[in-house]
Amino acid sequence: MKPEECRAICRIATYVHTAEESIALDLNRDPKIIISASGMMTGGRVLHHLKVYGTQDNNTIMITGFQAAGTRGARMLNHEPMIKIHGDEYPIRAQVEVLTNTSAHADYEEILIWLKHFEKAPQKVFITHGEPQASLALKEHIEKELGWDCVLPEYLQKIELKK
Length: 163
Known about the structure:
The protein is an alpha/beta fold. Helices cover 34% and strands 12% of the residues. The strands form three sheets. A two-stranded parallel sheet has the order 1-4. The chain has a two-stranded antiparallel sheet with strand order 2-3. Strands 5-6 form a two-stranded parallel ribbon. It has two domains: 3-98, Rossmann fold; 108-151. Helix 2 runs parallel beside helix 3. 9% of the residues are buried. It contains six helices and six strands, in the order αααβαβββαβαβ.
């Protein structure tokens, strides 16, 4: 894509900066695409949009990133029929889709490629982000393929590193 095409696409969008502008989106029920900040639908303006657009079957909610277990995003991906928002239950009638190739997080293969470029192995590798099963799998890959000491720290666990 040429730079001028990219700029033209960006000029098509209406950027919403304030809560008032966001509220106005929900008052106008014309078809639209709302692109929200990444997250798991745990808070923010997207909740107001979910109340309006998620309850209508002529809309689609496109989820583009990881959704941790128990979050609204994960429950919507599991096709739960009702979602609690601001203390009230709302039916999710919109079609819920996921784009799996838009995550900013590397998969285990990408992480291993990055780690293989280290000139010297670290004392320890700490895996502190991810679902437990995925974190354990990454730990096993790092230990098997690189032979490095890898830890899945527990909450408030203290580990002393050598100088």
